What we know:
Layout: E1 5-7, E2 18-25, E3 31-32, E4 35-36, E5 43-52, E6 55-69, E7 76-90, H1 93-98, E8 102-105, E9 108-110, H2 111-122, H3 151-172
The structure holds zinc ion (ZN) (2 copies).
One zinc ion binds next to loops.
Amino acid sequence: MHWLQIDVSNLAGKPGSTRKLTSSGPVEGFRSGLGWIEDGDSVHIDLLLRSAGDGVEATGEAWGRLHLSCSRCLVEYEQDFRLSLDEKFYVESDLAEENEGYEVRDQVIDLEPMLRDVIVLDIPIRPVHAEDCRGLCPECGADLNVSDCSHAEQAVDVRWAPLQSLMALQSGGDEEEVEN
Ligand SMILES: [Zn+2]
Ligand SMILES: [Zn+2]
């Protein structure tokens, strides 16, 4: 069985009984947006499984390392994550659906979908490798964190030129001031 598939038959029918689970291994092919887990990297879990009347509760933590692409300059960087988990696996699929939980199937719980779900939520939509990342030059693609191409100021001039001439025209006529 995969390291994230856990046999919980020893918890079945014994509400309140618990089992500690500490393990680690890869989460292959994980990628979402600008974030991913490197194939050689391990994800660690430290969970307490508790038998309940209608299933198994899993609480604890998962941690590992995310690789991200900066949304401004595209550089790759790493970021550690540590997430708390509090999820439930239901014996009946109806209940799982109703409560947006997971399923116990043939006395086995599969932690992988749960783990993927919580890690996805931790990935920023627009990751930035540093708050002051200057991004790429829209003109020549140069990484502005590394080199200063001369386009930055020119690009601004070109973009604002039509608006500036329009404003110059308007302010040439009757001068009306808008007061706040
Ligand atoms: Zn960046
Ligand atoms: Zn440039």
